[in-house]
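Record format v2
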Amino acid sequence: MKQFLTELEEAADRVTVALDALLPRADGPEARLASAMRYAALGPGKRVRPFLALQAGRLIGAEERALLRISCAIECIHSYSLIHDDLPCMDDDDLRRGRPTVHIAYDEATAVLAGDALQAVAFEILAEPDTHPNGYVRSLLVGELARAAGARGMVGGQALDMYLTEEGSADIGLITRTQRMKTGALIAFSVSAPVILTEAGKEARTALEGFAHDLGLIYQIVDDILDAEGSTEELGKTAGKDERQGKATFVSILGIEGARDRARRLAAQAKEHLAMFGREAHMLETAVDYVLQRRA
Amino acid sequence: MKQFLTELEEAADRVTVALDALLPRADGPEARLASAMRYAALGPGKRVRPFLALQAGRLIGAEERALLRISCAIECIHSYSLIHDDLPCMDDDDLRRGRPTVHIAYDEATAVLAGDALQAVAFEILAEPDTHPNGYVRSLLVGELARAAGARGMVGGQALDMYLTEEGSADIGLITRTQRMKTGALIAFSVSAPVILTEAGKEARTALEGFAHDLGLIYQIVDDILDAEGSTEELGKTAGKDERQGKATFVSILGIEGARDRARRLAAQAKEHLAMFGREAHMLETAVDYVLQRRA
């Protein structure tokens, strides 16, 4: 786990440096917009998704520079989704990663626009020749990210999540579907996008997608557990919100112990998917434990 | 002008039919999101940008199917920007194209998400092989649209526009820059993207870009004049807002007559850019008159 944490931190630093160079400078009359984009995308964060992309890519021999740019695009999409999720009309949250959210640190209109611009940057990064010399590969990456981020992926999941809050009741099937879309789609893209870069076969792709699917669900289940058990200080974001909002979650349906049990079983399953890669998959295996044990 | 209006309407219909097939169906638990996307993108609208793309493309012999898909992508970006512009934290508008805006017809959170998902769909459409058999061409289209729509284009212009409202004072240079980004960038993409599809030379591209630049400015100047002179009923959106918000516009700086004069001179210049295409450019020339004379 120690080596894992070192690698995680190293990956986060590399992505932050690369993103810093890719995002617009905060100068000129539109400095406020660029500054808000940078505040959101370059601030503290574990950068788990980029780490997964880098590790999955190494496993199948993908080129580092391409992986780094894909990681930056993923982080832009992730950051934009957090900005919009935190808006008063959505989750209405003042705190994110221990700092004021973008609409608090700037203003609501700038938050909407900074999110919009970060989404555009993600596709701009993928489309540029620096990502991959082959235009066909670039257009595949764009298409997959657009699907993962859109109405049938992340944004659709966010909408479902909101309706779960409004309805207050849902079965485990709907919650699973919601979270597969909301957090799962982008995590799945992180792990499976590298396959587009290489000649890795269908088997590797299926294995990585299965792994990503399970990991995404674990991530969300642990999120629900932390929201129920953690403190705001520990989390760096407001705790206890799900129950106050009367929201259907894995915890509200399965109970804390049931949710923990589900996460543990998914963790075993996620690791099984990696079996074909042998020892090489050690980092991704540890990522499962990390996500399972995280306290924030 | 009569033939022009017929062609404009025909283009609008074709784009609406194509978009209807490309947007997610409004069924399943996330129906509300898809329904809001459709409400915004398939509702009434003149579809001027798609018309420009189709006409510019014909001028240089671009393939119709590719033009139609590019038009759909443009309309998705345009629709998403209108949804977000209308939000309470932005322009706070209840009325658009004579109908309740998305956050009124649905709710604010759905409006944010429908805009986000429409942006993703735009890039998904461009990235798919149906747009063009060559992946390199597709990735070029994605990159150009992302730049036109992002922080240095449409979204950046929208941010500047907001700061113009807050400051209440600005010189004509800043207003021109703002509008070049806010409305100009997407209009420029509409006219110049077809060049990517063909072997048309640098000269044709420069001519079309010059034309698009002038047309974009005319569009915005006329918008400012209509806001100052038109009625809410005529416009299908709230009139007189610029003055009430103390916003710096072409009209507040140049006066109504000065703004009209500026638009007329830009119209002559726009037509000059088309000279190299001869009679073939008749429809685009008429588009200039149409934009200059529009009452809504």
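Residues 66 and 133 of chain A are 10 Å apart (CA to CA).
The two ends of chain A are 16 Å apart (CA to CA).
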